[in-house]
Design a protein that fits this description.
The chain is an all-alpha fold. The chain is built from nine helices and no strands. The protein is elongated.
């Protein structure tokens, strides 16, 4: 397990390369990607992979956590460039995109769903917090309802994003999210 010290620049590059290679393998549907292949695709030795991630499951968790961190960093930037209601709408669509990533990684993620990993609970907490911030900003500006909690909206999105994967599921999910967003707005 990596120490709490900041990583050297080369170690940070290696870690990022490993995460990118693993993400690509999992998104391509290669849930059983061997760590040796991931290390090779990242341009590092297998020992380097294990210095950063003790187990394959730790690598999967790190890939998923990075996805969630990047997603939940988006509200700050969105609020700088958009009105609060449009920032919320855009973030809702990013959550649909995140669900698509999750569906691409579903088999790999199943490997850690059976463990006591806190990764999913932490992800839900982060996403609900990001939604709560956007809802509060929108309500403060008088643009969205003030009676909806971030966790409630996340639960609604969970149902939408759990649609069965078929051709066009993501377009249908976006359309349903648009309807949901319309219900959040104050006219």
């Amino acid at each position: 397990m990596p120490s709490s010290r900041p990583l050297r620049a080369d170690a940070r590059r290696n870690r990022e390369a490993l995460l990118a290679a693993a993400r690509q393998a999992f998104l391509a549907g290669d849930a059983d990607a061997h760590v040796e292949d991931i290390a090779r695709n990242a341009g590092v030795a297998i020992g380097t992979l294990y210095r950063h991630f003790e187990t394959r499951e730790a690598l999967i968790e790190a890939v998923y956590s990075k996805e969630v961190d990047e997603l939940c960093d988006a509200p700050a930037a969105l609020l700088e460039t958009r009105s609060p209601d449009e920032a919320l709408r855009h973030f809702l669509m990013l959550l649909v995109d995140h669900a698509a990533v999750g569906k691409g990684m579903a088999v790999a993620l199943q490997h850690i769903m059976t463990t006591n990993s806190p990764v999913f609970g932490e992800a839900r907490t982060q996403m609900a917090g990001a939604l709560a911030r956007l809802l509060a900003e929108g309500a403060s500006a008088g643009l969205v309802r003030d009676d909806i909690a971030g966790t409630t909206l996340l639960h609604a999105l969970g149902g939408i994003c759990a649609l069965q994967v078929t051709d066009g599921w993501q377009d249908e999910a976006r359309q349903i999210v648009s309807i949901l967003f319309d219900g959040l707005r104050i006219r």
